[in-house]
Amino acid sequence: MVELGLNVPSLISYLVNYVILLVLLAALAYRPLLNALDNRVESIRESLAAADRAREEAATSRSAIEEELNEARREGQRLLDQAREASERYREEEMARARQSAEEFTQRAQADIARERDAAINEVRAAFGDLAITAAERIIRRTVDRQTHQELIDQVLVEGEQALRRN
Amino acid sequence: MTTKRVLLLLGVISAVLLIVGFVVGAVGSRMFGIGDSFLSQPGIHLPPDPVFPASVREDAVGYRVAEKKTEDKAHGEKESHHGLGLMQFAVTNTMLSAWLTSVIMLVFFIGGAGRPKLVPTRLQALVEMLFELVLNFASSILGPEMGRRAFPVVATIFFFVLFNAWIAIFLIPIYQAVGFGANVGGEFKLATHLVRPAGTDLNMPLALALVSFLFVEYWGFRAHGFGYLKKFFAFGDILRGRPSGLINVFVGLLELVSELVRIVSFTFRLFGNMTAGEILVIMITFLVPFVATQFVFGLELLVGLIQSVIFAGLTLVFLSVAVSHEEH
Predict the structure, then answer these.
(1) From CA A22, how far away is CA A16, in angstroms rounded?
(2) Among residues B319, B320, B318, which one has the least CA distance to residue B258?
(3) How many angstroms away from the CA of A38 is the closest CA of chain B?
(4) CA-CA distances (angstroms) from residue A163 to A122, A125, A130, B74, B90?
(5) Do residues B244 and B268 touch, judged by C-beta distance below 8 A?
(6) Nearest beta carbon to residue A9 from set B89, B102, B112
(7) Given an 8 Å threshold on Cβ–Cβ distance, is B86 in contact with A8?
(8) Maximum C-alpha span of chain A
């Protein structure tokens, strides 16, 4: 074996060399890097879990938002229908009221006209009665010729006309 | 200049260098009779060379020079030992290579993993990839928890073997050119390399094999307590008066032998592969210099990777067997 180079101090030197190398590498290379790899694995695992959570939350909130939008849409439609119904109802009510008011106005106007006409007729009638009485009184009181007679009639007519105008 | 042209130019240069290398190398020079080859015949020495202290190195170099002269006179004479004694201390060139590898590993790994960031730098990403490869390998054999526990020891073995092999390949020009010279036959030549791949020193694989062995046995005892020894000393049935217990005793002893033989197999597998690789590179460079060695470099990169995977993988498998709760 010595011919092959076996040498105890060399062997011990290699053993010491190996142990020093092992200790230094374990302390300054293996442990820091393996810890860093573990941390990275943990960090990646956490990131993936967080990403999954975020994806789930996004999906949940998207469905919630869609639900809210649908609800708002339905609410809007309901309000629109209500408004349409209210306006229709209001329009019909107003139309009915206007129609009724117009009819009332017309009826009132017709009643007024009829009353006025009746009053006018009565007045004319009364005026002519008075005129006839007046003319008769004058005819009876005075003897008049034809010309005077005519003048009296004209005078009565004029007075009657004036009286009508006054009224 | 387009990439295609650059590649074409490199291909032409490589082909020319291959032909020139073949002609001026050991094979061509002998075949065409053009005198000495471009490189002198390398000497293959299995033991590492002492480089410090200088006195031990000079002794070794002097011994080698004398031996060279002897070899020149009588070819084929068996090489005699000229390295360190069993207990003699010296800093060897393989030791320097292991220290260089250790420093490079520390700089590389601490630089990449010392202060890890959530968004990694390129170096950190590379180191992370390497760590995860080894960690996944360990976890696939031992399970996640035990794989994590075994990771530091196994990863250090894996990277130490791999870096030793690969750095030796990438720095082989420096490894081969830098050293201490000596006067051999009136000519000044490189007699001792300053650095040599640590895998070619028997002590380095042996040290790693011992680490692996001790680590496995430690976890065996930790998992089973002293009951772990029943695996090797299965006298239970014999003591209960069952003759069939003899088989268990025999199997237990076989287990013990195989457990101890693992140290030897670990050591010589790595030592053999690394040494053979270095010899192959040196010999190819001697036979056909320049570019032919590139093919061997590619092969050696693969061999380095395979050896590191085997060393780490077998440690994990033995550990898995040691901590498993099956009845032995």
Answers:
(1) 10
(2) B318
(3) 11
(4) 14, 12, 11, 186, 168
(5) no
(6) B89
(7) yes
(8) 199
C-alpha span between A5 and B92 (Å, rounded): 11
State residue A158's pLDDT score: 85
Query: What's the token pair of residue B1?
Result: 């200049």
Give the CA dihedral B265, B270, B272, B276, nearest 10 degrees. 160
Would you state the structure tokens that stand for residue A85, as one six-digit string?
């119904």
Cβ B228 vs Cβ B79: under 8 Å: no
Q: CA B224 → CA A23, B211, B254, distances in Å?
A: 26, 20, 20
pLDDT at A54 exceeding the cut of 90: yes
Among A84-88, B55-59, B317-321, the least confident range:
B55-59
What is the chain A residue with the closest CA to B134? A30
Cα separation, B163 vs B199, in Å, equals 10
- CA dist B320 and A129 (Å) reads 151
Is the separation of the CB atoms in B195 and B97 below 8 Å? Answer: yes
Confirm if B11 and B291 have CB atoms less than 8 A apart. Answer: no
- In a mutational test of the A interface, the residue from B100, B103, B156, B157 whose CB has the highest number of chain A CBs within 10 Å is B156
What integer pLDDT is reported at residue B285 of this predicted model?
Answer: 85
Element (H, E) at B52: strand B50-52
Residue B34 pLDDT class (50, 70, 90 cuts): confident
Contact state of A25 with B110 under an 8 Å Cβ cutoff: yes
pLDDT in tens, A63-109: 999 999 999 999 999 999 999 999 999 999 999 999 999 999 999 99
Q: Which residues pair with B189 in a beta bridge?
A: B182
Using alpha carbons, list the distances in angstroms from residue B245 to B241, B257, B321: 8, 18, 22
Q: Which residue has the tokens 């994990």?
A: B316
| Confidence at residue B301, expressed as pLDDT on a 0 to 100 scale | 93
B273: its two tokens: 């592969």
